[in-house]
Amino acid sequence: MDRTLVMSSPNVCSNTNGGNLMRRKHSTMANNIYYPTSCVSKASQCHRKTQIECNLLRSQQSILNHHYKCIEGRPTFQECNRKYVVKAAHAIPSFDSESHASSPKNILDPVKKFLVALYWFCNPHSMIGRTLSATSGCLLAVEKLSDISPLFFIGLLQVLVPNFFMDIYVNGVNQLFDLEIDKINKPFLPLVSGNLSITNAVFIVASSAILSFWLSLIIGSWSLIWNVALYFLLWTAYSVNVPLLRWKRSPVLTAMIMFSSWTLIFPITYFLHMQTFVFKRPVVFTRSLIVSMVFYGFYSISLALSKDIPDIEGDTKFGIRSFATRLGKKKVFWICVSLFEVAFGVVLLAGASSSSPLWIKIITGLGSIIPATILWYQTKYVDLSSPDSTRSFYMLNWKLLNVAFLFLPLIR
User: Which residues form a coiled coil (predicted)?
Assistant: First the structure.
C-alpha cells in the first residue's frame, strides 16, 4: 500500500523527469486501487508524504553526485575543481601582476637606469668641454664666412665622432683604476655605487677605444690620427696602474699631461685637420690659433691643480702626492685663481689689440671680463674644508672655459 501511495501522490517526484514518467506510467493503476480503510489521519498522510519526498530528494542527490564523478576513479568534481583552483593560484600570476610586469614603464626602467649610469661614467663635463674645444679648434681655420659650408660641417663631424669614443675610453679607464679612491672622493660615480658593473665598464672602455681608432683610420686624416693616438697614450699613462705608468701620482706629470693635451694636441690637430685635410690649404699658424694656445696653457695648468683640491683625502690615503697635498689647499687654490684670471686677461688684451671690427672687440672684451668677474666673485663663497664646495668651484671653471670656446675663434 505504501508503494501504491508513492506512485499515486501528485506531488511526489515532480522535480525530475524520471518522476513524471513514473507518474504517467502508473496513473491508471493508481486510480483503480481500493483502500480498505479510511481511518488514516490527514496528519499521518502528510508526515508520510514528507518523508517520501525526502527519500526521493536523497536519491536525486545521489544521481547528481554520480554524474559529477571523475572518470576512472578520479576524485569528485568538487575535489578536482578545488585542487585545480589551488594549483592555478600558485602557477598562474594574476592579471594585475602580469599587466604590471609587462607595462612599458617597467620594461624601460632598466634601460633608463643603464643610460643614466653611462652618462655619469662618461664624465659629461669633460666630454662637453672636449666637444666645444674641437668645434672651436675647427673654427680657427675659418678665414671667411663662405668657409662655413657643408664641407666644414662634414670635417667637424669627422673630428667629433672619433673623439667622442676616445673621451669615453679616457674617462672610463680612469674610473676603473681609481675605484678604491673614488669610494672616498666620489662615491656617487656609477662603478662605486654599483649602478654599472665592472664587466660592462670594461666592455664599454675597450669597444670605445677600438671604435675611435677604427673611425680615424677610415677617415684618413693624419692630424686626426695623431690626435687620437696621442690622447690615448697620454691618458692611459695617466690612469693605468702598471710599472712606469700611473703618472697621476706625480703632480708634475699630471700638469704636463693637462698642458700638452689642451694647449698643444687639441688645438693644433683640430686646426690642421680642417686647414689641410678639409680645406686643402697650406699649414699656417694664425694669430687666433696662437692666442688660443696661450689661453689654454694658463687655463689647463690651473684646471690640473684645482682638480686635486676636492680629492685630497683619497689622494693622501693612497699615496698620490698632488700639489694640493704637498702645498696645502689654500695656497693651491689661490694659485689656480690667479692663473684663471691671467688666462682671461690674455684674451682681453688680444681682442683689444686685434684688427677685427669693433663689434668683435666688444664681444671678446665682454667674453673675458664677465667670466673673470664671476670667477673672482665666487672665490669668497668657497669653503676649502668642504669637498663639495671645492668641487663646485672646479665645475664652475669648466663652465667658464666652455664660454671661452665660443669667442676665441673671433680673435684675428
Answer: none
